[in-house]
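User: I'm new to structure prediction. If I give you an amino acid sequence, what do you actually give back? Let's try with this one:
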Amino acid sequence: MSARFEEIDWRPTPLGDISLRRRRDPASGDDVYEVKLGDEFLMSSLFVEGEIALTRLGLAKPAGAELDVAVGGLGLGYTARAALDDPRVRSLIVVDALGEVIDWHRRGWVPLGSLLSADPRCRFVHGDFFAMVGDPCGLDPQAPGRRFHAILLDVDHSPRHVLHPRNAALYRPAGLRALADRLHPDGVFALWSNDPPDGEFTAVLAEVFAETEAHVVEFDNPLQGGTSANTVYVAVKGADSGPGR
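Assistant: Good question. You get back a string of structure tokens that encode the predicted 3D arrangement of the chain. For your 245 residues, that looks like this:
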């Protein structure tokens, strides 16, 4: 049994002070892991249904027996773990701007860290996902220009509520076209959002991708005594190999 509350790590970063803490849930007695950026909660192991659904919905579309997948945003690792649970995934890179978060996983300070670090299919990449999408080298420094069968993104709260102003460019047509260029033909882009489905953003997705969907993912919220919901957007690139459609 852990202590009732423990701050496992605290470090300053270019985005603000980030902290990892563990507390005991008085209702279940389980350990709950939480990440804060400044005074803002980024994630909690109490609420992982949206992260898992991001992978499940994103990987439901690609065909083929072997998939190369990229994840933007490591967090507590639930999106990445769900990808590795899919036997079709032969390779996974996870891009995160905070080396501190990657270090937590490598040190085994978060529940899924040792599992992800030990899986030979999984590789962590320290970098700015949003800048790398538009860079000629792309998302994988070891394979410039590499394309993926699926790209799963969980960094910002939503396309309208971003962690840094520069991230907003990705959610516009030019940014989405650059992202589509990182996908194989018929590849899939899936995005987690904490906001309800946004019709304007769905319309922007439809300018670039051949198919678009917005899925509402509901889950129990024990803190509020009811249910909460996230949105997962799923967009499929056209069959041609050119930019956008």
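You can read the tokens as a compact description of the fold. Here is one thing that stands out. The CA atoms of residues 106 and 231 lie 30 Å apart.
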